[in-house]
Amino acid sequence: MPSMVWLPEGWVPKLVAVDIDGTLTDANKWLHVGAVEALRALEAADIPVIICTGNTRPIAYGLWRFIGLSGPLVCENGGVLWYPDGEVVLRADGREAEAACRWVAEQLPGIDANGIATNRWRESEWCLKTDEDMEAIQALLVESQWSHLTVLRTGFAIHVMDPCLSKGQGLSAVLERLDVLPEDVLAVGDAPNDLSMFDLVGWSVAVGGAFPEVEAAASMCSPEPHGATFPPLVAAILAQKKAEG
Ligand SMILES: [Mg+2]
After folding, report:
1. How many CA atoms lie within 13 A of 205 on its CB side?
2. pLDDT for 133-154, tens place per residue?
3. Catalytic site residues?
């Protein structure tokens, strides 16, 4: 049963992990300006923000830079990790997924092998358009040399990826490197790809408008839609941090 309060009493996260799409943005993909200001206030209070997204590294990096964040990035649902010192960790090879998709498109005329526009920046997976015939793609791959790859449909694409990739696994690797325990982390998200990160951390918040299974898994469900969650959530964090002294 999700909690009715923003945070456990007296608890202050050491890090905050946030999804982008549907979490910092509204249903039109517009960034919530109040959420941006709230994340800056967290950083000013020495609580680093980690972006955990299905989006690619250049897109996450742009947000990181322009908001003014200091934490690492978990991109492509855990496939790509980036640290502010410039180190990049690729947890899978996207060229393999691309080769698999190009082969599939040869077998199934009509499938667009180039997939979605952000593939040119993808490093750990390849994404076909969301309205392609997923069952046919799956059936072909299972009998091919790429049978170890997973085919997963989200609202915006069919992801062809290494099955070991998840936001939770990517975030776990980052926390180990930062020497921060998962129980000291708060995560905010809206969609099924956030569930692995909710499983990992000490406290999870589902934004208003989240998928029902995400609300069911969260420690608390925000009464505010999407990015409007952040001003009151961050105010609660900063109030407990102040009380802590
Ligand atoms: Mg999302």
Report:
1. 33
2. 999 999 999 999 999 999 988 7
3. 19
